[in-house]
Amino acid sequence: MNDSLPLIFDPRTIGDLGIKMYTRLPHGLVESISNAYDADAKKITISIQQDKNSVKSIEIEDDGLGMSREDLAKRFLIVGRKRRKEEEGDTSPNGRKITGRKGLGKLAMFGIANIVEVRTIKNGKMNMFQMDWRDIEKSQDDKCSFKLIENDVDTQMSSGTKITLTEVKRKTKIDVKELAVSLSRRVNFGNDFLVVVKEGDGNEYTLSNKLRVEGIDIEGEFQVGDEQIPEQHNVFKGKIKGIIKTARSPLPRKDMQGVSLFARNKLVNEPTAFGSASSNFFRYITGEIHIDFIEDKEEDMVATNRRTLDWDNEELKPLEDCLKDIINGTEKKWREMRKESATKKISEKLSSIDFKKYQENIPDDKKEPLRSLFLLAEEHPDREEKIVSDVLEIVPEYAEFHWRYLHKKLKKENKILADYKKKDYTSALTKAWEIYEMELKKVSGEKNMSGAKLINEYLSKDSKDGKDCGSLEKVPLDKAVKNDLEESNFCIARGCCAAANITRHHETATKKKEVDFSKNIFTDKDCLDILSSISHLLYRLETDIIKAKIQERTHTK
Question: pTM of whole model > 0.85?
Fold first, then answer.
């Protein structure tokens, strides 16, 4: 009996389809996982043997049907064998839909390591051999034979296949968890086929939907099925299903952004938005859509490296348009969800503000700029709450009131703002003037004098006995300037006092039912102007000039 097995190939094919296409570890391992699934395995374990500095070996072991010596020679070692077109057909012995198609998956192992050892058991017979990339590379024809290490050896071991990769090309240590997460995004076979990745005898990770979104703070989930397929794409109803998930904040890595396409539980197109979705939305989405019907077509529409479909094929144009519309529809729902969520969060944070009323009270000349800012917030949901909070800081509720920089004593009196909000401007002004009168009494020491009398007594240019009390020798200002300052302060005080008296007289008349007292004697702007004037008086009352003036008149008396 011949104790060697030939690999039939063109050496250049091995290099182009093996090493060059599967240089990334997850891509190569997916092919081994796919082969195990097609062999009706219930479980495959990928074990990484490494130390601190390098990867020693990678072991891939499954509990599938295994391969006989004949299977190895006539099937496994034939490069480019079209399994689905041969006697096995499109399903495995146990009825699984076959995922392999091109007969090139075995070459992926040479993208990972130089030496590939295969040990397989079927029906109590063990066969084992080793392939070295350098031997294949040196081959002068289309065949390279590998000596069997174990040749139909009887064994009590269960059926299955173990592949050991040594002289691994990767020079740095493998993050086993990250590898498991990456594989979870490339295969999705469900619970009837477990894929386990582990580091020697250490931590192990089972591929799952949960692992697929590891590290992503999921905010929303949107199902993809017949209801989400627009009417113009009815031809795809019953053929497309999946789920799109949105993150609370932008996904940190580009390879996580977008929607992946799967066929027969295996990746056929890496994450993308299919020319739809805004760039902003794209940063938040991840998900998968299953299009199994692609694998039922006679023509192979999946690129050899299984990273993309052949979108240049006209037959795929309707599918691309359908996927684009599905994602656009999802984006619309996402924006509505985010807007509702952000509004709720902002309302909770700023519960004292009625946003509808707030927008009504925005000054007319500020409405358009603010609308632009709110649209910007909507475009950046992760920053929406912060943007709106900042806007409210700059343009607070009843902004015109706050922008007047009123004196702290007026701001502290909540009843003034309350009256202003109710548009009871006369009451607001009365309260503000009472505060000023009280402060004027404190500075002058005249507790029983009325406001009008206080103004005439202490703020007028001349004292009560006709003497000029405008001389403030300690204040470094020209005398004429001092006089003008005193005069302006006096006039403003008289005007505010008169305004306050108007409200008092009308209130008195109303109580006597002589007139129908109206709260709208003053307009919004009138109220703000007078409040600003009273604030000015309070600020001046705190300055050295006015204090000195009042104190001088007090001493004169």
Answer: no
